[in-house]
Each structure stands twice: as structure tokens, then as C-alpha cells.
Fold this protein.
Amino acid sequence: MKIALIAHDGKKADMVHFLSGFKEELHQTEVKLFATGTTGSHIERAGFEVTKLLSGPLGGDAQIASMAAQKELDLVIFFRDPLDKHPHEPDVQMLMRICDVHNIPLATNPAAAEMIFKYLTNSKETWNQKR
Ligand SMILES: O=C(CO)COP(=O)(O)O
């Protein structure tokens, strides 16, 4: 299972906290994590192996959208900060649109992400699934 992780600055701590609750599941060899640059650095410091792409404002969201469009992702978790402005808002919108175009599950807050992760945990073989 390939999972993309993205968090706006105000949500990066939430992302690390969220992932820490699923350490065992995420350390399975079948699970591959990808993240935008700064989010990835935070995740790495928390002890996860993650492939870091460009920082969001420099094209990282677009890179993840490209992976989603090519069906290279199974799930996108994007903790957005709705109370802040983002210079690359068009890229953010594009990523969410591409997920919808290609029917890629997209969680934009911890409550939704937790539901998806709990679902995956309760049906173990799905952590191994590939699109
Ligand atoms: O800006 C982002 C998402 O739109 C996240 O990018 P960073 O992980 O590089 O901060």
C-alpha cells in the first residue's frame, strides 16, 4: 500500500501525532510512505521511513497529484489548515480534484484518516493491497 502524507504547517504536529498511533501498522514492509518535503522531514524525525518529494509550495502537491493520476497511490492523507492562506492553493485544489477523478481515497482531517486506518487495521490484508 502506497500512502501519500501532506500537512500544512499548522497541522504538521497533528500528522505526526496521528501517525504515531499507527506505528506498528505503518512499519509493515508492504506500506510505503511518501510525503511533501517539510511534512516528510517531520515524519522522518518521528521514526518513519518516508520518501520525501518537493516541498508543497515548490511543487510537492503537484508531484503527489501526478502519482495519483498514474495510479501509483492507494491513499492520500492531507491535513489541510483551513484557517491559513497558501500561495500554492491552485496546486492544493488540483491534488484534491485528481484524487476525485481517479477515485483515490482522500482524508483531509484526522477524524477521516483515523476511520480509514482503523478500517485497514480491522481487515489486515488491505494494508497489503495495491491499486
Ligand atoms: O504545502 C503543503 C501542502 O499544500 C505541504 O508542503 P510541506 O510538507 O513541504 O510543508
In short: The domain at 2-128 is CATH 3.40.50.1380 (Rossmann fold). Residues 6, 8, 36-39, 55-57, 60-61, 86, 88, 92 surround 1,3-dihydroxyacetonephosphate (CB under 6 Å). The chain has a mean pLDDT of 95. The chain is about 45% helix and 15% strand.
